[in-house]
């Protein structure tokens, strides 16, 4: 298949992902059970769309789901400046526990911006559930709000990955696994 032919190496298969996502959902289910009001899971569009969909199916609790969009990258593989919220929440999160569902924490700039935004809207706690984490590239340390926790799927080596929501110029998001493209495709 043409899409698969562009991949040099698979980092996490569909099976790896589904196992890890259900583990994360069980942790969230355990951690939020005593909470009186259902947590709000906020998916960061577009990258987190598959992760959010898979995650919520395995959370055995009442939850709210919403989306937010933030622009931080152009079509290439490098950041092009300060992130900006371009599509905001529909739900009122005042006094609610929010779980921000992200595709990846890279420099940490997007996450810091989003956490500050959710805090300013009155969330009583902000947790982060990120599918991947690239700690080697961190430029900004983010701080959770209230009793918020940090959940992460996998630690990612310093490669630019595609698939399972991750794009290059908006393509490859629909691959069911995460991989690295052949080097000539990044040029
Ligand atoms: P940060 O603000 O933490 O530097 O960047 C976060 C955003 O950068 C992610 O939400 C994602 O859109 C993009 N990003 C960072 N690393 C990768 C990667 O390896 N592959 C893809 N496709 N996007 C990435
Ligand atoms: Mg993201
Ligand atoms: Mg992108």
UniProtKB/TrEMBL annotation:
Domain Phosphoribosyltransferase: 16-165
Biological source species: Liquidambar formosana
Gene Ontology MF terms in the entry: hypoxanthine phosphoribosyltransferase activity; magnesium ion binding; nucleotide binding
Cofactor(s) needed: Mg(2+)
GO cellular component terms, A-Z: cytosol
Subcellular location: Cytoplasm
GO biological process: GMP salvage; guanine salvage; hypoxanthine metabolic process; IMP salvage; purine ribonucleoside salvage
EC number: 2.4.2.8
Family statement drawn from the similarity comment of this UniProt entry: Belongs to the purine/pyrimidine phosphoribosyltransferase family.
Record's keyword terms, sorted: Cytoplasm, Glycosyltransferase, Magnesium, Metal-binding, Nucleotide-binding, Purine salvage, Transferase
Gene3D superfamilies reported for this sequence: 3.40.50.2020
Protein name: Hypoxanthine phosphoribosyltransferase
SUPFAM superfamilies for the chain: PRTase-like (SSF53271)
A Pfam family matched in the record: Pribosyltran
Broadest EC class assigned to this enzyme: transferase
Keyword Kinase among UniProt keywords: no
């Amino acid at each position: 298949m043409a899409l698969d032919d562009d991949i040099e190496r698979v980092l996490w298969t569909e099976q790896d992902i589904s196992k890890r996502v259900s583990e994360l959902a069980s942790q969230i289910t355990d951690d939020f059970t005593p909470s009186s009001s259902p947590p709000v899971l906020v998916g960061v569009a577009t990258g987190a769309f598959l992760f959010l969909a898979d995650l919520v199916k395995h959370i055995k609790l009442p939850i709210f789901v919403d989306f937010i969009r933030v622009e931080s990258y152009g079509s290439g593989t490098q950041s092009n400046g300060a992130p900006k919220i371009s599509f905001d929440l529909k739900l009122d999160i005042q006094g609610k526990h929010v779980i921000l569902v992200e595709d990846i924490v890279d420099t940490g700039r997007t996450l810091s911006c989003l956490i500050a935004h959710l805090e300013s809207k009155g969330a009583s706690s902000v947790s982060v559930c990120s599918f991947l984490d690239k700690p080697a590239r961190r430029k900004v340390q983010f701080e959770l709000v209230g009793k918020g926790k940090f959940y992460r799927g996998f630690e990612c080596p310093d490669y630019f990955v595609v698939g399972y929501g991750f794009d290059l110029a908006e393509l490859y998001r629909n691959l069911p696994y995460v991989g690295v493209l052949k080097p000539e495709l990044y040029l």
